[in-house]
Here is the input.
Amino acid sequence: MASTPVYFHNDPGVPAIEIGTKEFMCVGAKPPFDHPHVFLDMGDSDEMICPYCSTLYRFNKTLKAAEARPAECVYRPQAA
Here is the structure.
């Protein structure tokens, strides 16, 4: 995984999110309605469902690692 994890959320409630990485963090919804921030790794697959929020993530090789479709599903956590 890259040195800085890439986080995604599904506040819009879309059925699937396309992302440009196979290793990422899912937060469910934006805080304070988030679930535990879980690391997910698609491995050889091009899809993965988050075990907490059931969001379907699809790998899209045309996107950069920190990009998503819809774009608003990229989450940037605040520094502590």
